[in-house]
Automatic annotation (TrEMBL):
The lineage of its organism: Bacteria, Pseudomonadati, Pseudomonadota, Alphaproteobacteria, Rhodobacterales. The keyword Nucleotidyltransferase does not apply. Residues 26-381 form the Leucine-binding protein domain. SUPFAM superfamilies: Periplasmic binding protein-like I (SSF53822). Keywords: Amino-acid transport, Signal, Transport. Belongs to the leucine-binding protein family. It comes from Albidovulum salinarum. This is ABC transporter substrate-binding protein.
Length: 431
């Protein structure tokens, strides 16, 4: 990405653009995510994708409501995955810019502002459905079912490589890492793969070399990085290479994988399994898709923002597309109307095909879209989809395993809210 780009200048300044808002023809959408720092690969590339989406909608004349066309403006705020900055950004977006939708990565930064957003009935989207609860009716997870889609990678490996019987895994101890750890535990249990080592680490103070050395002590067939942040995924992978590991590697994401291939070797990285495809993948060519032409989106992204593609480059844009369809159907951008339009048909065209609203069993509310999800494997240095795994099928058979692991790690919605000390719906019902 060019150092002089609009998005990056905003990221460095950590401030909103000075734009006049409130005009009848413009609808503002807030984007609160890490645009700088160690988690920026799950924020800034998503903003890039949103700019492509907004430009395309603009070329088509904008959002049509009641026979009138409206421009859509994306207003970014760099929260750097810091709850205090997230609070500042959300208040600025709501109070000064009258945003009709907020896009967020979620996790620890979203929990700091969710009561404020709920009180004001601001429709908010997260990439982490583990943020959902019955107390957050205007919070939705329509794009990414993190971390539950990770079960598809484990399931595929258990069938394609049945000789893998022992795994060592590691995860950071935060709102992204712990739900992921619970999901991988459940998936390995369902697949009959023994967890021989589990390491939980502080994301701010972790020694990748020491973690990998401890994981290798029990001679696993597979190493799993869970949902570690991109810099840690790279550090762990390079440490495994330096240690001479030759077994299977598994991770939720593998952003900037060409750099890892260059730093290790194509042979070492061969067969690495993760969950996020490149959009020039031939397996996506015939998919019913939010842009209809995913390769065109990928090519435009690479042209405008080279060397910055990540797991989230398309995800926020996919949310925007679902929101756009619902808003035009409702003839309104109010949260209640858009949400009702999203739910009215009972099913939504998700990025990888039809999906249904789900989540009450784990999150206390059916505000997450669940459908198929791709399993991706590095083949000769290039990410390639090997299968679209069915998350609903896995949940139908193994859902209780997932719930048990979520409970054990304190990741159920009521457990999280009890720790936060908020007056949850559960507490109110017990009065």
């Amino acid at each position: 990405m060019s150092s002089g780009s609009f998005a990056q200048r905003l990221a460095v300044k950590g401030a909103l653009p000075r734009l006049t808002t409130g005009t009848a023809d413009t609808i503002n959408i807030g984007f609160v995510a890490p645009l700088t720092g160690p988690v920026q690969s799950w924020g800034l590339p998503g903003l890039n994708g949103c700019q492509i989406w907004a430009d395309r909608i603009g070329r088509k004349g904008g959002l049509q409501l009641g026979g009138r066309r409206h421009n859509i403006r994306i207003l970014p705020y760099d929260c750097r995955y810091d709850p205090k900055l997230a609070r500042e950004g959300v208040r600025k977006l709501v109070q000064e810019h009258d945003v009709k939708l907020i896009l967020s990565l979620g996790g620890d930064t979203l929990s700091a502002v969710m009561d404020y957003l709920t009180d004001r009935k601001i429709l908010t989207a997260t990439l982490l459905p583990s943020d959902l609860s019955p107390d957050t009716p205007y919070l939705i997870a329509p794009s990414e079912l993190h971390p539950i889609y990770n079960v598809t990678g484990v399931d595929w490996l258990s069938r394609s490589r049945p000789e893998i019987r022992r795994v060592a895994l590691c995860s950071q101890t935060d709102a992204l890492g712990l739900p992921s750890l619970a999901t991988y535990r459940a998936a390995f249990d369902a697949a009959g793969i023994e967890v021989v080592k589990e390491i939980r680490y502080d994301p701010d103070a972790a020694d990748a070399g020491a973690i990998v050395a401890a994981m290798l002590a029990d001679h696993p067939d597979m190493l799993c990085w869970c949902t570690s942040y991109t810099p840690m995924v790279h550090a762990l992978t390079e440490a495994a290479h330096a240690a001479g590991f030759t077994g299977q590697l598994l991770s939720c994401t593998l952003d900037a994988y060409p750099r890892l291939v260059a730093r290790t070797s194509r042979t070492f990285m061969e067969g690495f399994v993760f969950q996020f495809p490149d959009f020039d993948d031939p397996a996506l060519a015939e998919k019913a898709f939010f842009f209809n032409r995913p390769k065109d989106f990928y090519d435009e992204y690479q042209r405008r923002f080279p060397d910055s593609w990540s797991a989230v480059s398309w995800e926020y844009a996919a949310i925007l597309d679902i929101w756009h369809t619902a808003a035009e159907r409702a003839g309104s951008v109010t949260s209640i109307s858009v949400l009702a339009a999203m739910k009215q048909s009972g099913a939504v065209m998700h990025a990888f095909g039809p999906a249904a609203w789900w989540g009450a069993e784990i999150f206390g509310i059916d505000n997450a879209l669940v459908g198929d999800w791709p399993v991706v494997r590095l083949t000769d240095g290039k990410a390639r989809i090997v299968e679209f795994g069915s998350i609903p099928d896995w949940l139908a058979e193994h859902g209780p395993r997932l719930k048990a692991q979520m409970i054990e790690l304190g990741q159920m919605w009521d457990q999280r809210q009890a720790r936060a000390g908020s007056k949850t719906a559960l507490a109110r019902r017990s009065l």
